[in-house]
Each structure stands twice: as C-alpha cells, then as structure tokens.
Amino acid sequence: MEVAKTPDPDDRFLLELSSKRIDFQPVSKDVSVFYDESNKQVFIVINRGAEGIIVKGSDDLTLKFSLQDRGNILSIKFSPTFEILSLQRSQSHIEFVIFKNGQPIEIFTHTLKNKNSRILGFLWTNINEIVLVLDSGIEFYQVLTDKKILKSLKSFSLTVDWFVYQHVSCILLVANGTFGNVIHPFLFRPSNAYKLNKFEIDWTSQAKTANLSLHERDVTVTNLYGKPRLLILRHQPILKEQSGAHILIYTWHKRDSIPQKTDILMTNLSGRFAINIVDDLIVVHHQTSKSSLIFDINLSQSEVYGGAKCHLPIVSKCVIKPYKINNLIDYELYSSNWAIFQPNIIIDAKYGCLWFLQVNLQFIFELIKNVPILIDFLLLRKNSKAIILKVCRNVVAMSRRHGQNPIGNLALIFNKLNLAYKESLVEAAKVDTAVGPLNGGDVFDYLKHKIAVTIDQRDMLTHFFEYFDNEGEGEGEEEEEGSIDPKLGIAIVFEYVHSLSAQRITVQYFIYEFLLNHLIQAGSFYQMHQFLQYHVFSDSKHLACLLLSLLQHGQYPYALQLGLDMLKRLQTADEEIVEVLLSQSQVVRALQYIERHLDINSISARKFLEAAHATQDVRTFHQVYKQLQLRNLKLRGSYEFAKGENCEFYERHFEDLFGTKMSFIST
Predict the structure, then answer these.
(1) What is the pLDDT of residue 477?
(2) What is the distance between the alpha carbons of residues 650 and 620, in angstroms, rounded to a whole number?
(3) C-alpha span between 501 and 364 (Å, rounded)
(4) Is 655 within the bounds of a domain?
(5) Residue 234 lies in a domain
(6) Do residue 503 and residue 601 come from a single domain?
(7) Cβ neighbour number for residue 18 with a 10 Å cutoff
(8) What angle (nearest 5°) sits at the alpha carbon of residue 175, between those of residues 169 and 179?
(9) Are residues 263 and 309 in contact, defined by beta-carbon separation less than 8 angstroms?
(10) Residue 479: predicted pLDDT
(11) N or C end of the chain: smaller count of CB under 10 Å?
(12) Distance (Å, whole) CA 57 – CA 40
C-alpha cells in the first residue's frame, strides 16, 4: 500500500472532475447527443444519422456507422452486447438494427398494436430483452433477431405519467396519480418481470394547495450502501424552522416490502439542484451558489422526523476543483449546460465533454475536524486506507505540537478501526465456510456490514508504528520532525494491543515483537517483565525466541526463564525447550526435561555427550554419561552404547577421567 503523498496546496479540493474525459462533437443544429446510463455510452448523431453516428464509452470503445435518414431520433441505445441497436423516431414504433462486426446489417421495426398508446421510452434489461414504457402501461419483450420480431413476455396495464430506471438493480419506477406521487415499482429478471408493492410519496398540504406535482427531474434512483434507494428532491421546507429544499430518501429492505422513508437531507438552500453519487456519498450540486453539499447517510443524524433520520451536510459549500480544458481554457463549473447522470456522470453537451465526478480525500481532515467522525467517514470510503493512517500520524504530531497526550484520541480511533477489522474477519470466516453464494445474486439480499476499508495489524505496523522511528520523513508540513518519546510510543502500541484484545482479535506476533523491541531499546525491563508476568503478551514461539535472544547480548539475565516459561505454557514446544537448554549448556536439565515430557529412548546419545563435553565440567559430563547408560540398560539390557551411536570417543574420555567405562560410582 502506498502512503498518501502530499499534494500541492492549490489542490485542496474534495471534489474534482476526472482527468480522463470523453470528448465528442458539441451539440449544434445538425448534431444531437444522447447518453445511455446502462451502457455508459455517448451517442453523437449527425444529421439524423445519415452522415454518421459515433458511439463512445468509458472503456475507450468507439463505434462509427451511419443509418438511413428516416426522421428525427428521439432516443437511441445499444443492447448490452452491442449486437442490437434500438432507436425511437416516433411515439408509435421502435426500430431495431442488427449489428455484426460493429456495423449495421439488417433493420426491422416494431409498431404498437394500440394506436392510442404512446411510447414514452424503452430500456434493455438483458442481452435480448427490452421493456417499452407506454403511457398506458409496460410491455416486456424478447427480441428474436432471426425472425425479426418481438416476442411478448409480460405486460402490465396502468397509466404512466413518467418513469425512471436503475440498471444496477433492474428496478423500473412508474409514476401516476393526481400529483405524480404514486409510484409503481417493477423488478426485471431474465425472462421475467415482477410488479412490486406500490407506494405513495409524502406530499405536503402546501404542495397540494399549490397544485405542485412530482416530476422525473426531481427523482433519482440509485444503489447506496448496497441497497436500492429512491431520492426525491422537494423544494418546500419540511420543518417550520427550516428553510430551503430537502431530499427524501426511500429505501427497499426486501423485494416484497414497500420502501420506507428512512432519511431526510436538509440543504437550507433554494434554487436549482442536481445529484450525483460518489463512493456512497450523496453530492448535491447547487447552481446558484456554484457549490456542492456532501451527505453521508451512515453518519450520525441531527434529529428524527416522522421516523426518518434528518441529516445536515457532512461538508457544506464544497467547491469542485477548478478545471482547464486541455490545460488552456478555464471551464465554468456548475454550468447551466450541465446534464447530470447517475452515479457520477457530468456532461456538458455545449463543450462536448463527459466527466466522472471524483472524491479526493487527501485533505479531508481539514474539512472534518472531529476526529471520531472523520474516522467513521473514512472507514466508509474506498481507497481511504492511506488517509486513515495519515490521520493517526497527524493526531500524534498535533498533540505534541500543543503539548497534549494523544492516547485519548488514539484510543477512540483504535476502537473504531478494530471494530471494522473484526467485522471483516467475521465476514471472511463466513465466506470461507459458506456452501453456496452468500446473497444468491438477488439485489435485495445485502451483506450487513458497510465498511469499505479495513486497517489490519500489518498496516498499523508498517504505516503508523514504524513512523515512531523515522517521524518527519516525507510526511508533509502537517507533521513535525523529531522522534517521539519512546515511552509514548510504547503507550500507543500498548493501547492498540488493548483495543485488539477488547475485540477478541488475536494479536499478531510482529506487533508484540515491535512492542518488546521498543521496551528493550528503552531499557524498560521491569515494565517488560510485568507485561510478561501478567500475560499482556500472548504466548508464541516467535515471542519466546525474541526473549531468549536477549541472552546473546547479556541484556537481561531473567530472559531465559521468561522465554522457557512461555514455551512451556504453549505445550507444543518441548523440542524447542530442549534446544534452548542445550544452547545454554544446561545439558543435565535438558535430559531431565526429556525424561518428563519426551521419549529419552529416541534421542541421540552422541549429541548430549558432545554438549556435556563442551561444558568442560567433569561433574556435568559424568552425570549425563550416567543418565544415558541407565537409559541403555532399560532399552537394551546393557550399559554399553550401541556401535551405531558413534560414542567411542566419549567412552574413552570417560575412561580417561574415571578409569572405567562404567558410571555407577559415587559422585
């Protein structure tokens, strides 16, 4: 993972237009431009298609072809596989053009049987399935290109004032009623369509008195935090003390349920609005002030009204970063020429440009000052890992700058990060043990967690704790140079370990190793001993070996017993304990341990005689020799060592010392 780089101070904008854009011929008398939200394609139609149609997509796809001029084109879309082009030239029929190798080869027309009906629009729901939305109902067809006909799959009769469609969830919303606020949802699946429960959008008496109707332009259907949601822009205030427009959010929780009004977004502004969705954030553009409001419905609300959570902007009056077309022409942001599409598309047909709205989190901590809320916000954003870790570092730097202790803020941060970490571990375990798909492919089945990023222990070690040793290197002006106090570093890591333990997350050995190393470097052996004695550290072979390594440098004489005690508690490290004892020339103790916990009959006699000989202690050599001869007696009925054990040298040495090869003498 890359650590966040420090941008230029002039780049401190939360919102920006993508550097990669789709350029096309601007709208003119002879040029029409259409956008297909499902396939994310721009259609440039020149002279009604006779002089050419150019199709451009976000995946660098470009198609060029021409069609016979058969009248004005009202709408044009490709099927998902780009094998069929559908276009509407009148309110009574749809043309279908069959493509091969990117070029049209055949054409046929579908005309409505009911001459009194009008086509309001159409949409593709599958590779060869299309829905015609009429003012008198919905018609669902399968396109049979070999027969050049449409086969009816299903139809629904109802009055249609307007409609909106969301291709990700395949939900079509049809509106009718006196004020256009009665919504009929339809859900499409391959070869099938379902009419869901209708519902009514809340309409105030003020709006009814003014005879104000709900229009398509004030409606947005989107997926937000994994759930289909309907956003309704209302220009009238919802509360007496509140002014300006608000946005109602209706959420589907299950397929067969009526969507519930779950959230209300307060803008406190009036005028023209447009909505984009970026990284599960609702971005409300306000043309009059040439600024944007950013809402996050998963952060704490200000109050509850009518069972719905009321939200103020998490960031208000946020301005999109200034943009130059081709680095030359200053572009007018929040232009009246903008056409906004979901989720994050901005099109200016006058200039011939399509952009993707993006969120730049580099300096979000300057806009959201409350650290706990900032962490909650960032955990819900994709690609925010580097920023979260930078916030952790900044908390330490800013606290030191003001002479404060950062532990309190860091404790809150660690608890939030580790709660999300725990959720990710639980979900990973579910995936590992699941027999089939977790959500069965249905848009109405959701994972419960909403966290978009996880900060694991390796991330914390590499990009936060190791910062203690090289603080100020390449971290930007927000962080001061100079290493922090070692004791503070130890306290921070200990607080992190405490937070992990509170969430019942197994602490990885490298975190303990880092903490132990810093305790050693700081000479805090008493504190280290206390941590070990009261089992603050979880036992592991890695940690035990680290303790034992202290013996090599003579730093802490009690490290041997601490390491051995830890290995004993593991109950899986008997062989390691023997090797440690041998390395410390405690050969007799090693043999005694083997007699209690292992099979002394299977050990190499030569190895232990060699270790005893290396001690240059006659008493030790005699005791080891005697224990091994007793083993021989029990194993083979003789004190003699077997020839295959290659102990002749040590037998002669014993004889030189004691005048006999037999060890059963008084010591």
Answers:
(1) 41
(2) 13
(3) 30
(4) yes
(5) yes
(6) no
(7) 15
(8) 145
(9) yes
(10) 43
(11) C
(12) 6
Residue among 165, 189, 311 at smallest CA distance from 249: 311
> What is the distance between the alpha carbons of residues 170 and 199, in angstroms, rounded to a whole number?
18
Residue 107 CB partners (closer than 8 Å, separation 6+)? 67, 95, 96, 97, 98
Do 283 and 294 meet the contact criterion of CB atoms below 8 Å apart? yes
Cβ(286)–Cβ(292) below 8 Å: yes
Q: With 0-12 CB in 10 A as exposed, 13-18 as middle and 19+ as buried, what is 513?
A: middle
Residue 624 has pLDDT above 50, yes or no: yes
Q: What residue numbers bound the domain in which 451 lies?
A: 362-507
Whether the model pTM is above 0.85: no
Beta bridge partners of 34: 43
For residues 38 and 656, give the distance between their C-alpha atoms in angstroms, rounded to a whole number: 94
Q: What is the DSSP track for 559-610? A: HHHHHHHHHHHHSS-HHHHHHHHHHTT-HHHHHHHHHHHS-GGGS-HHHHHH
Pick the closest to residue 18 from 379, 278, 221 (CA basis): 278
Q: Are residues 312 and 371 in the same domain?
A: no
> What's the pLDDT band for 551 if we cut at 50, 70, 90?
low
580 found inside a domain: yes
- Compute the average pLDDT of residues 58-82: 91
* Tokens 């405490």 belong to residue: 498
Average pLDDT over residues 308-337: 89
Judge contact between 607 and 583, C-beta under 8 A.
Answer: no
What whole-number distance in Å separates Cα of residue 252 and Cα of residue 196? 11
Q: Can you count the helices (H) and strands (E) in the chain?
A: 15, 34
Half-sphere exposure in the Cβ direction for 293 (13 Å, CA): 23
Distance in angstroms (rounded) separating the CA atoms of residues 595 and 597? 6
Residue 51 has a CB neighbour count (10 Å cut-off) of: 12
Domain boundary, last residue among 507, 533, 560 = 507
Domain total in the chain: 3
Q: Tell me: do 259 and 366 sit in the same domain.
A: no
**Statement to judge: residues 207 and 262 lie in one domain:** yes
**Is pLDDT larger for residue 61 or for residue 117?**
117
pLDDT value at residue 450? 67
Reported as a single tens digit per residue, the pLDDT across 326-342 is 777 889 999 999 999 99
| Coil, strand or helix at 535 | coil
Angstrom distance (rounded) from CA 586 to CA 577: 11
Same domain as 368, residue 302? no
- Phi/psi class of residue 435: alpha, beta or left (left: φ > 0; alpha: ψ in -120 to 50)? alpha
SS (H, E, C) 164-206: EEECCCCEEEEEECCCCCEEEEEEEECCEEEECCCEECCCCHH
Residues 278 and 392 in one domain: no
User: Measured between alpha carbons, how far is 53 from 68 in angstroms, rounded to an integer?
Assistant: 11
Q: Which residues contact 434 (CB under 8 A, 6 or more apart)?
A: none
Between helix 559-570 and helix 541-549 the angle, nearest 10°, is 170
- Of 319, 335, 350, which residue constitutes the final position of a domain? 319
Long-range CB contact pairs, 529-537, < 8 A, 24+: 529/558, 529/562, 532/562, 532/566, 536/494, 536/497, 537/512
Section 504-519 average pLDDT: 86
Spell 200-236 as b/e; 16+ CB within 10 A means b.
ebebeeebeeeebbbeeebbbbbbbeebbbbbbbbee
Domain match, 171 and 315 both: yes
pLDDT 10s digits, 420-452: 999 888 887 776 665 544 444 455 544 344 678
Classify residue 106: in a domain, yes or no: no
Chain segment 344-366, per-residue pLDDT in tens: 999 999 999 999 999 999 989 88
Using H for helix, E for strand and C for coil, what is the string for 55-91? EEECCCCEEEECCCCCCCCCEEEECCCCCEEEEECCC
384 with 294, same domain: the answer is no
Residue 213's closest CA among 266, 151, 161? 161
Tell me what pLDDT residue 518 has: 82
